[in-house]
Amino acid sequence: MAQRQPGVLTPAGQRLLDTASALFYRHGIRAVGVDAIAAAAGTTKKTLYDRFGSKDALVALYLRRRFERWSAFLAGYLDEHAPRPGPDRVLAVFDALAEWQRDAERGCAFVNAYAEIGGTDHPGVAVIRTEKETVRELYVRLVTEAGVPPAAATELGLRLALLHEGGLVTMTAGGQRDALTHARAAAADLLAAALR
């Protein structure tokens, strides 16, 4: 079926997206069928297909919206807790991530989704790759603004992104609840060394 790109959703479309988002995150993409989504949202499969075109398009929109929500949350967190460029603003990304994940038992929605759809031509894969690239680019920008020379900022940004992602996976899949605290401490060490 054709992939639709809904702009403003109808109330039924928003209900479907909200319901699908909760179900996809809690149970996984493949485990949740369109019948279950429609029933839980109080709509029909026809309404789902009319609004989104396909389950794959709904999955991609779920991921895009989650990316938008995370980006907005992070921007607000940084503005409130570390508004000026510097090491504190870089490390505040780890604090924001810990806050975002406080009640999220399944960890990173993008990693979870990639485990199910990676290696395919699913439209959600591009969203996942964009989210991961954006995290890396964010760290590069923030460390540059903190005073790390541009020649070193790219490598440091990649290392911080690896700590970010690794901490997140270790916290959830590895069961180590303080993993982001350790990732933040390692990031602080790398950042301090780069600023010497």
From TrEMBL:
Keyword RNA-binding (UniProt): no
DNA-binding region per Swiss-Prot/TrEMBL record: 33-52
Keywords: DNA-binding
Domain HTH tetR-type: 10-70
GO terms, molecular function: DNA-binding transcription factor activity; transcription cis-regulatory region binding
Protein name, entry field: DNA-binding transcriptional regulator, AcrR family
Gene source species: Jiangella alkaliphila
